[in-house]
Specification:
single chain; about 140 residues; 5 helices; about 0% strand
Length: about 140
């Protein structure tokens, strides 16, 4: 199960990075459109469209950053076997079920890995020194 937890962490990091790259691409696209509008408009009416296009690109970038950062943080936490990362990833996996098709696949895989008994033991290992030895059984005496 250790391999599955590591793979899940890597997948969350990759999924988060893809979201960030998409946001940056949209920001660059809308910024490029604003630049084209500025250079091609000879009438002077572009002054109103340029900040709107830039604002739309910035808004898309901010939304993708807000949506991608929890996945990046959860992936890094999973790789370090942090207990909070398990909880965060379970919540993210449940939310990713709605993100068809890749998010659904990642969400189902994440829930399978982290909700299984072996996945839980990865984050809460039983310490050998925490086991209290029991007293040997004594025969009971009947009166």
């Amino acid at each position: 199960m250790s391999t599955h937890v590591k793979l899940l962490g890597i997948l969350h990091i990759v999924f988060g990075l893809c979201g960030l790259l998409f946001g940056l691409a949209m920001f660059a696209l809308f910024g490029g459109i604003a630049g084209i509008v500025q250079t091609t408009d000879r009438s002077g009416d572009a002054w109103m469209a340029i900040p709107i296009l830039g604002g739309i690109g910035l808004f898309i970038l901010l939304i993708t950053v807000i949506l991608s950062l929890p996945g990046l943080i959860a992936g890094m936490g999973l790789l370090q076997r942090r207990s909070w990362a398990r909880t965060l990833t379970i919540v993210l996996s449940a939310l990713l079920l709605l993100h068809v098709p890749f998010g659904t696949i990642l969400g189902v895989y994440g829930l399978w890995v982290l909700l299984s008994n072996a996945g839980e033991r990865e984050f809460n290992p039983v310490r050998q020194d925490a086991i209290v030895p029991t007293a040997p059984d004594r025969p009971s005496t009947l009166v």
